[in-house]
Design a protein that fits this description.
- This protein is α/β, with parallel strands linked by helices.
- The protein has a single domain (4-216, 226-237), classed as Spore Coat Polysaccharide Biosynthesis Protein SpsA, Chain A.
- It is built from seven helices and 13 strands.
- It has helices at 35-45, 59-69, 88-94, 114-122, 179-192, 197-205, 226-243, and strands at 4-8, 29-30, 33-34, 50-55, 75-80, 103-107, 110-112, 130-135, 149-153, 156-161, 169-177, 210-214, 220-222.
- Helix 3 (88-94) packs across helix 6.
- The longest helix has 18 residues, at 226-243.
- The chain starts with a strand and ends with a helix.
- The model has no long low-confidence stretch (mean pLDDT 94).
Length: 246
């Protein structure tokens, strides 16, 4: 079973203040459970046995909280990014020495229906490419202005960016990656001193090697602002009520 990488290194400054329990975004409780724990839960439920968590801002506090508080049966590897002020691609490069083969990649501040991470774990990734899970239900995306947009040609990504004016998919923040994505991000980093995931994705797109997997009717939510937090919490609480007591 392929491993997973969770990016949890950033400041999360736009979410600070929504919780009296912590100033660290990955530990912010949403519907009673920390964001990072929810991401870990989803991956473990999908069959993942080894997860690399890239940390940066508040690294010691975050690592200790997870090591002492998270109780699911999974191998956790913590990797620190000392340059966490840079873009998220730099965080992914920090995990490179702990990866051998393809892997699932997601963010600590996204929540997903369980089926989405199951789709990612099951997807067969090309050895020289990568895949982004996308949402074609554009009208249902909360805070579309803040979302990363995608222009797709069938199941192939053509262009990606927050400022796209022509788009037909939205980036969900979940990927299946080969080392090719790492290579592309590393090339941009060596040239410019910084690199985002989108830089690597766009580089693969130029050669037609960035594929897309639509999540269908399943739901996800980025949790980056107080408004997104409220939307995610309402959804998760509703979902919990619908399931009933354990």
């Amino acid at each position: 079973m392929r491993p997973a990488v969770i990016l949890a290194a950033g400041f999360g400054s736009r979410l600070q203040g929504v919780s009296s329990e912590t100033t660290l975004k990955p530990l912010t409780p949403v519907a009673g459970r920390p964001l990072l724990y929810r991401t870990l839960d989803g991956l473990v439920d999908a069959g993942c046995k080894r997860i690399i968590v890239v940390i940066g801002f508040g690294a010691d506090e975050l690592r200790i909280a997870v090591e002492t508080g998270y109780e699911r049966d999974v191998e956790l590897v913590f990797v620190e990014n000392p340059h966490y002020k840079l873009s998220n691609g730099v965080s992914l490069l920090c995990a490179r020495d702990h990866l051998d083969g393809d892997f699932v990649l997601t963010m600590a501040d996204h929540v997903f229906d369980a089926e989405i991470l199951e789709m990612a774990m099951a997807y067969k990734c090309a050895p020289d490419g990568a895949c982004l899970l996308v949402d074609s239900k554009i009208d249902s995306v909360f805070d579309l202005d803040d979302a990363t947009k995608v222009w797709a040609d069938g199941d192939t990504l053509v262009e990606i960016g927050k400022q796209l004016t022509r788009y037909n998919r939205v980036d969900t923040g979940c990927f299946v990656c080969s080392s090719a994505l790492l290579d592309e991000i590393a090339a941009v980093y060596e040239e410019t001193g910084d690199a985002s995931l989108s830089n690597g994705v766009q580089a693969l797109a130029r050669t037609g090697k960035m594929k897309l997997l639509d999540i269908g009717e399943h739901r996800w939510q980025d949790v980056d602002t107080p408004e997104m937090f409220a939307e995610a919490e309402a959804w998760l609480l509703q979902q919990s009520v619908a399931r009933g007591p354990d």
